[in-house]
Write a structure and sequence with these properties.
The structure is a homodimer of 155-residue chains.
Chain A lengths: L4 H17 L18 H8 L3 H13 L3 E4 L5 E4 L8 H9 L20 H16 L4 H4 L3 H10 L2
Antiparallel strand pairs in A: 1-2
Chain A binds a DNA duplex (30 and 30 nucleotides) through helix 3.
Chain lengths: 155, 155
DNA sequence: TCAAAGATACATGAATAATGCATATTATAA
DNA sequence: TTATAATATGCATTATTCATGTATCTTTGA
């Protein structure tokens, strides 16, 4: 019972971008590309991660349109939304996958027709995500100055 | 992000016992042993599980004093408490293990000193368990008659 | 004393997450 | 136009953890 590192890495990437780019507000739900884009290499060096895995997470964040990715020379990625528009429940649900937390089929459990358990666990899961829904990336950037310093001195 | 089968099996065992033994009330926090005890074999046949794994879960439930186990001929196990005294949050926390849902060390994350995320996830986890705390084994036995029929015809 | 039950330790297998490698694709700059 | 730096993508491999199997010990009742 633990979030995947994959999900964790996704959140760290967003924190990195948020700390670097700042809390831009955007009316058109888009932010401008910064001068120099953040690259997968930057992330890997900062957090001491392997590029392969980060590669996939970045791609996923791109597909979710949370970041915008640019191929080619001087490419990289940046936040596609303002931090206060990136809800944590959405990020975690998408990266983590949204399977039930208890498995009643596979293999099938005979008690299923009279089982109250799966409903209770499913409701608990929703309460977890309802709570996360109250937070956005902006809430993860409360100590933005400190994060900036950490990220700039790391690697 | 899913409960272990181990935990699931534990809950099914308790449901089986509760359905069979009924909703006995006990002032001294103990129930009487029934005529014929439930065995690991009974559970395995009912739910089509391997005895090895169930063996360990039964042992664990015994250590938690949720059931009482009896070795030797005519041995087996039975509920050690009334169903309404067996809280679901306790069972799941114990069987599942109570680790944090997000890993900040191992390996260490540089952002940790300024990270807001782990606290948010930890609080969400507690809300999940707070919800489970409202339920007991008795709540899983609402359709007790149907469960009894299922369990008696299965195997 | 035998047989039926759980207790325990250790070994193996399976599933999935994490990582690695290779190569394709794209965009920019020289 | 070509070299280079970046992401995109698919497949292979490794590591971790969960699940299961095998063997043997211990306990208890008949």
């Amino acid at each position: 019972m633990q979030l995947k590192k994959y999900t964790d890495y996704g959140l760290r990437i967003l924190m990195y971008l948020g700390a670097k780019e700042g809390a831009k507000e955007s009316s058109n739900n888009r932010t401008e590309a910064p001068e120099r884009l953040t690259t997968i290499k930057d992330i890997c060096e900062t957090f001491s991660l392997s590029s392969n895995h980060v590669n996939k997470v970045v791609h996923h964040l791109g597909r979710l349109q949370l970041i915008e990715t640019r191929r080619g020379k001087n490419g990289g990625f940046f936040l596609a939304k303002a931090p206060n528009e990136i809800r944590l429940d959405y990020v975690i649900r998408q990266l983590e996958g949204d399977e039930p937390w208890i498995e009643c089929h596979n293999p099938y459990c005979v008690a299923l027709p009279a089982c109250e358990l799966n409903g209770i666990v499913a409701r608990g899961k929703e309460l977890f995500y309802d709570y996360l829904r109250e937070f956005t990336l902006a809430d993860l950037l409360k100590k933005r100055g400190q994060l900036q310093q950490i990220f700039s001195t790391a690697s």
